[in-house]
Amino acid sequence: MDQKSLWAGLVVLMLLQRGSAYKLVCYFTNWSQDRQEPGKFTPENIDPFLCSHLIYSFASISNNKVIINDKNEAMLYQTINSLKTKNPKLKILLSVGGYLFGSKGFHPMVDSSTTRLEFINSVILFLRSHNLDGLDVSWIYPDRKDNTQFAMLIHELAEAFQKDSVKSTKERLLLTSGVSAGRQMIDNSYQIKKLADDLDFINLLSFDFHGSWEKPLVTGHNSPLRKGQLDRGTSSYYNVEYAVGYWIHKGMPAEKVIMGIPTYGHSFTLASANTAIGAPASSSGAAGPITKSPGDLAYYEICQFLQGAKITRLQDQQVPYAVKGNQWVGYDDVESVETKVQFLKNLNLGGAMIWSIDQDDFTGKSCNKGPYPLVQAVKRNLGSL
Ligand SMILES: *[C@@H]1O[C@H](CO)[C@@H](O)[C@H](O)[C@H]1NC(C)=O
Q1: Looking at the domain assignment, is residue 315 inside a domain?
Q2: Is residue 287 situated within a structural domain?
């Protein structure tokens, strides 16, 4: 064999060893359909080739059964099926839980094996009857006394999905979980070695590291890639690099870690003329004109905000923030998501997760970089999906 074909062979071998291509896992929310134009987002806005996995959020639990309460439920199932017809490789999952549903939503379902079984049976029936490919459990978050029940629920789901694939002779349903990136939560909420056996992958919520809920109230970035020069003590944990490393250190295989990248920023109202990171703030930033939630801005709102704003790139944390008047926002842009994707590839992670595609500039009208500038940048830098 000559040198060239030897190299070609080696490259093929390395690709095979990586198993498969990177995953691009994209959440979309059912409440984005209620936003006013141009933020109104419905599943018909989804490009079937944008992501490898789409996750509808959120379903909930009622009488120990999984349910969807979407006001356009019938349309949703139709769209799911047409997306899958256009791209047969696309996987669409259902996420149950979420921030508002909280931890209490999972009780009393998780408390006994009978009620868990009732839930699990309802999940399989639901996913199969709507041609969905799996379940994402977004229990935000199990506390220390819940972590056994959480691990049991996941284990029983995994076993049931396995049995179902034999019985139905269909491809096995996927099982994933949206999990915390906070060190204390990682210690308390998850029996990681067990979860590593039972989950196909985790969707790491590696954002919301800083926001206007913090005391003392000072400016900080939503999703810094790395520790900042000013970070001391526990704030040294509040970055993507630390969270990813800690999950892996505690036993989650790197290839099962899907690293979260946000399409939104957190904003603050400055309390003084100091506009730096760590500057005093008086409250959350003003609500965006479309998303209307103080302290949160979608990327399509940030692009508008950037006109006439002063942009600073944090060299240590590798993310930007922008200031206009007394408003401060820490966010991700094409450059920072490219750096993040390079980071996750260097660590051989499983891929990137986007929260959420409805907050990217999905029309392309706000940022003038074409539709989905952030998701497209992630996709481009991941290479083939
Ligand atoms: C979205 O789903 C939640 C949970 O099922 C439900 O309470 C809410 O009404 C839904 N929103 C819309 C706009 O359908």
Answers
A1: no
A2: no
1 in a domain, yes or no?
no
Q: How does the average pLDDT of the chain come out, rounded?
A: 95
User: Which pLDDT value is given to residue 385?
Assistant: 77
3-state secondary structure at position 284: strand
Q: What is the pTM of this model?
A: 0.94
User: What are the backbone dihedrals phi and psi of residue 94, each rounded to the nearest 5 degrees, phi first?
Assistant: -110, 130
Per residue in 334-372, pLDDT tens?
Answer: 999 999 999 999 999 999 999 999 999 999 999 999 999
34 lines ligand 1 (CB under 6 A): yes
Number of domains in the chain: 1
- Between the alpha carbon of residue 333 and those of residues 6, 75, 338, the distances in Å are 40, 32, 9
**CATH code, domain carrying 219:** 3.20.20.80
60 lines ligand 1 (CB under 6 A): yes
- Is residue 35 a part of any domain in this protein? yes
**Domain span at 99:** 21-263+336-382
Q: Ligand 1 pocket test: which of 34, 40, 70, 100 has the largest number of ligand atoms within 8 Å of its C-beta?
A: 70
What is the 100 CA–ligand 1 centroid distance (Å)?
Answer: 11
Which are the contacts of 368, defined by CB distance < 8 A and separation ≥ 6?
303
